């Protein structure tokens, strides 16, 4: 296929477009272009097409040419949605690389990359934006019909609207209504979009005359002094600001909402409600108000020097060493050179926390992008990046898909984090690795930062594939926290345990509270109790859909499955033997919080886990409360380990380190060290040495000793010997194939057939099929096949091509009916 620019054509020439459909199909599909649209087809534009008998989809033009498909008659595309491409040529190349590397289809990559409002389909849900007042007299006939129908029926699909209007080309109409804020578009309408509105105030023009203003003030001062104060504050603000919001005036004047309302009613001030961007409304120039230490300056120069030789540099900096300040200096250099920067963070939690710090430096130059944004907001960011309005994007893994123009630097903070890996659905990409490819594609630089680098990145640095820089001391000379390991076994013998807390941890918590300091407690399991068991017959409630026991949540009073979301009432009588002797085994964050509130009744305790941070602003509210010292003790899962920086947190308690260490996975020791070191790093930042208490049944465990001594290198060399012996990364590459089916017997035959076919090509590189730790999820039984390959690119690419062929051949057989095959390249 040729690109549009390469084709010389007349109005009556027949053109064909190859499009990417948002479906898991292995080939792009070709459509015929109506003559009237010949001048409008360009690569990267969205088009409306019919696929199958009646389904409509938004597709992306991947190529334009004049060659008709040979095997089928091309249908006409129905319409073009865009005046200019919404996807760039570079993005399409990136999508193709992701599809090839992670063994998936371009349509699956498109689904992950585009906000759903940019990929309308027959099933896409449409609803009225209830916060937007529609003047129906301004609507076109078809817009009016759709609005009327949505007032009667709250929600319609695109297919419903096709039937309502009696035409297939409804998507341009819906696009126009979406842009006017009349409707919301979402694949999941559960997240309602509300445009951010602010009331802005202006002075009634008659009071621009100084004489009228002088007459007004004495009257207000006598009858309504608060209103006089508000008006005076308005005049003061107007000297330095073009726009003044109602909230700003209330804050500046100290007057209440009623006083402002009275000024509006008296027509002294004129109020106008406007939709404003949620993304950033602060256009201040970034400030330059911090100094790097001599060590930081040296490391910064080292990074810059390494970038002259290497495209990727690994920065190994201990916790609280000031890595973020180095990032800021590098970002400033990129902005000054006119290039864009992508700053990746593994967690939305970190994004919301660190954005406040970065905004003071970059103001309106910075945009934020992650999955907690609803669809309209994601489209807004997409368009701003496409229009080059943002110089810096701060985001979670999905921000690698944005339409950058000139990407000069990608920073991957906490590069070791597994949160960068997408698990479901496909593409199962790792944003860190994708960022490295992206940087290469834009001829930009990539900086990987971590206090505990992944072994793969550290190996690449040691073998000189990456550059390497090290920041070995905490900023400001603050000492690393003192770490004390406490044996739970010993304390149980001495009977000094209080619930799940050793006497050492309890004493340190009480001391911190007495000194008006804060505490973070880490327990890597949410819920109240992970297991309910009958003392008589040992019955344990299991999920009806998955092969896991249910976790009790006290807040809901129900048993929850953390894999599929199934819930049921907690029984008071054993359904197996009728006994009333049911007990809870183990404990999660909810139980830690509950028992602490009884042991320390005066303490203000909060919990930060998936259950308490589901709503949009709940996470930020918890962090704000911790910052403002409204929380004394924060109990949390791994969320609390990542990037939080609070000056008064002096004690960190790890309630049960064994839950991390005793996991049957070759990553277990690496992950345990990373988690324990990261959690420990939250203590004693900004000028105070902190204390970390690690509670464990195995105080002599090698990894705990390495954490105490902060000896990453000892961990690395010890683990690498084992990995080399057993052919694990980074010496070998791994591809996992999960085969799923609702029948266990059929699954057995399917997995064995696939493994046999793969062994014909790869011999003993194929391991399995085996049942994974959890062998049934959402009513699908699972068997896993692992393949290990040498590191060289040629052999892995050849292997992927063979795996694709084997899977395709399997899917042509009758045996494959009902099977789901999921490929996971470089699993974590």
UniProtKB/TrEMBL annotation:
Residues 569-726 form the Helicase C-terminal domain. One of its GO terms (cellular component) is primosome complex. Zn(2+) 2 binds at residues 543, 546, 561, 564. One of its GO terms (molecular function) is DNA binding. Its cofactor is Zn(2+). Binds 2 zinc ions per subunit. Its EC number is 5.6.2.4. InterPro entries: DEAD/DEAH_box_helicase_dom, Helicase_ATP-bd, Helicase_C-like, P-loop_NTPase, PriA, PriA_3primeBD, PriA_3primeBD_sf, PriA_C. Zn(2+) 1 binds at residues 534, 537, 574, 577. It holds the Pfam family PriA_C. Residues 304-471 form the Helicase ATP-binding domain. NCBIfam families: priA. Belongs to the helicase family. PriA subfamily. This is Replication restart protein PriA. It comes from Mucilaginibacter ginsenosidivorans.
């Amino acid at each position: 296929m040729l690109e549009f620019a390469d084709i010389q054509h007349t109005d009556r020439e027949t053109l064909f477009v190859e499009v990417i459909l948002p479906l898991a199909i292995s080939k792009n599909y070709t459509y015929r272009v109506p003559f009237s649209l010949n001048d409008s087809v360009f690569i990267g534009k969205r088009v409306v097409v019919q696929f199958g008998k009646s389904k409509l989809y938004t597709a992306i033009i991947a190529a334009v040419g004049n060659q008709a498909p040979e095997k089928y008659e091309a249908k006409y595309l129905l319409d073009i949605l865009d005046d200019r491409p919404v996807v760039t040529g570079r993005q399409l190349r990136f999508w193709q690389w992701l599809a090839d590397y992670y063994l998936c289809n371009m349509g699956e990559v498109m689904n992950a990359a585009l906000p759903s409002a940019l990929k309308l389909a027959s099933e896409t849900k449409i609803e009225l934006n209830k916060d937007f007042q529609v003047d129906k007299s301004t609507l076109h006939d078809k817009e009016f019909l759709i609005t009327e129908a949505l007032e009667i029926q709250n929600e319609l699909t695109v297919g419903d609207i096709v039937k309502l209007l009696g035409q297939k080309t409804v998507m341009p109409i819906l696009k126009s209504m979406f842009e006017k804020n009349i409707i919301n578009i979402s694949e999941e309408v559960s997240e309602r979009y509300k445009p951010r509105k602010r009331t802005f105030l202006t002075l009634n023009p008659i009071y621009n005359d100084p004489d009228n203003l002088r007459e007004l003030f004495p009257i207000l001062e006598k009858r309504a002094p608060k209103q006089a104060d508000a008006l005076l504050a308005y005049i003061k603000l107007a000297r330095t600001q073009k726009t003044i919001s109602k909230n700003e005036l209330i804050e500046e004047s100290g007057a209440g909402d009623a006083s402002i309302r009275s000024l509006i009613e008296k027509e002294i001030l004129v109020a106008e409600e406007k939709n404003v961007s949620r993304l950033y409304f602060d256009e201040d120039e970034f400030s330059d108000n911090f100094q790097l230490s001599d060590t930081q300056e040296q490391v910064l120069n080292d990074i810059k020097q390494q970038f002259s030789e290497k495209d990727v540099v690994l920065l190994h900096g201990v916790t609280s060493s000031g890595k973020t300040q180095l990032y800021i200096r590098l970002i400033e250099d990129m902005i000054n050179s006119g290039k864009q920067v992508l700053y990746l963070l593994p967690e939305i939690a970190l994004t919301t926390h660190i954005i406040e710090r970065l905004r003071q430096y970059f103001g309106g130059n910075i945009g934020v992008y992650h999955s907690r944004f609803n669809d309209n907001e994601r489209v807004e960011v997409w368009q701003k990046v496409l229009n080059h309005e943002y110089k810096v994007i701060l985001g979670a893994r999905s921000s690698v898909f944005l339409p950058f123009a000139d990407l000069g630097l990608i920073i991957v903070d906490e590069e070791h984090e597994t949160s960068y890996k997408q698990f479901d659905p496909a593409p199962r990409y790792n944003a860190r690795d994708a960022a490295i490819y992206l940087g290469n594609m834009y001829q930009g630089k990539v900086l990987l930062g971590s206090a505990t680098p992944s072994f793969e990145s550290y190996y690449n640095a040691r073998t000189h594939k990456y550059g390497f820089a090290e920041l070995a001391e905490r900023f400001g000379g603050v000492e690393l926290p003192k770490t004390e390991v406490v044996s739970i076994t010993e304390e149980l013998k001495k009977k000094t345990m209080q619930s799940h807390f050793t006497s050492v941890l309890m004493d340190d918590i009480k001391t911190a509270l007495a000194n008006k300091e804060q505490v973070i407690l880490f327990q890597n399991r949410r819920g109240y109790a992970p297991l309910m068991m009958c003392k008589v017959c040992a019955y344990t409630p299991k999920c009806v859909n998955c092969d896991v026991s249910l976790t009790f949540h006290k807040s809901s009073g129900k048993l929850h499955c953390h894999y599929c979301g199934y819930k049921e009432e907690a029984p008071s009588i054993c359904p197996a033997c009728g006994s009333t002797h049911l007990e809870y085994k183990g404990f999660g964050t909810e139980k830690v919080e509950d028992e602490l509130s009884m042991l320390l009744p005066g303490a203000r305790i909060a919990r930060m886990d998936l259950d308490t941070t589901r709503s949009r602003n709940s996470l930020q509210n918890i962090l704000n409360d911790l910052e403002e010292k409204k929380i004394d003790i924060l109990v949390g899962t791994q969320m609390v380990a990542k990037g939080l920086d609070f000056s008064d947190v002096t004690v960190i308690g790890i309630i049960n380190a064994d839950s991390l260490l005793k996991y049957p996975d070759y990553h277990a020791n690496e992950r345990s060290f990373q988690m324990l070191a990261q959690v420990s790093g939250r203590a004693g930042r900004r000028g105070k040495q902190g204390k970390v208490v690690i509670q464990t049944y195995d105080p002599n465990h090698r990894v705990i000793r390495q954490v105490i001594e902060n000896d990453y290198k000892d961990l690395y060399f010890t683990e690498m010997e084992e990995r080399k012996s057993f052919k694990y990364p980074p010496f070998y590459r791994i591809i996992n194939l999960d085969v799923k089916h609702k029948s266990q017997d059929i699954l057995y035959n399917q997995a064995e057939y696939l493994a046999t076919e793969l062994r014909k090509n790869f011999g003993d590189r194929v391991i399995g099929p085996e049942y994974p730790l959890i062998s049934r999820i959402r009513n699908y039984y699972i068997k896993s096949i692992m393949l290990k390959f040498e590191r060289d690119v040629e052999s892995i690419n050849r292997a992927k091509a063979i795996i694709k062929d084997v899977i395709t051949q399997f899917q042509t057989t009758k045996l494959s009916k009902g099977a789901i095959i999921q490929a996971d390249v470089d699993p974590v």
